[in-house]
Write a structure and sequence with these properties.
Layout (H helix, E strand, L loop, with lengths): L1 H14 L11 E9 L11 E10 L2 E6 L8 E6 L5 E9 L15 E10 L3 E6 L6 E6 L2
Antiparallel strand pairs: 1-2, 1-8, 2-3, 3-4, 4-5, 5-6, 6-7, 7-8
Length: 140
């Protein structure tokens, strides 16, 4: 009977989803996104935005604005145990003068971001299109 109980418990444990793992990066953060003006030919003005950011179980989520509405931006993705991150920023253009090529208001966009974190800070860069820098600070 004892063997049957142990076998049943083993099968039950295997069927349950793995518990989420906390990481050294989990917590509340502040993200400052800075994109300087582009050349006259591209004509996009520069900007700085601050996002509330949350890392939970090694997954980063930073949101600015209302999903799907002009001005919305959503940075997300996993952070590796070594602090490296391949993130994605999804967004919707708000003002043409800040968008490369004067993209129209309401147009969706996506671009990759690479970042590196320590338990208290992080930096990242936009990988395509204009130059943008990401600075992360962990909040107490």
């Amino acid at each position: 009977m004892r063997t049957l109980t142990i076998a049943a418990l083993t099968l039950l444990a295997a069927a349950l989803p793995a518990a989420a793992q906390t990481t050294a990066f989990d917590g509340n953060w502040r993200l400052t996104l800075s994109c300087p003006p582009t050349s006259q030919s591209e004509g996009a003005k520069g900007y700085d935005y601050v996002f509330p950011t949350r890392i939970l179980n090694g997954e980063l989520q930073a949101v600015r604005g209302t999903e799907g509405e002009p001005g919305w931006q959503y940075l997300h993705g996993p952070i590796g145990a070594d602090g490296s991150a391949a993130l994605v920023l999804d967004g919707v253009v708000n003002l043409q003068e800040y968008a490369i090529g004067k993209s129209p208001k309401g147009k969706s966009f996506t671009y990759p971001v690479t970042a590196k974190f320590t338990p208290t800070s992080g930096t990242g860069q936009r990988m395509t299109g204009r130059s943008c820098n990401f600075v992360f600070v962990r909040l107490p």
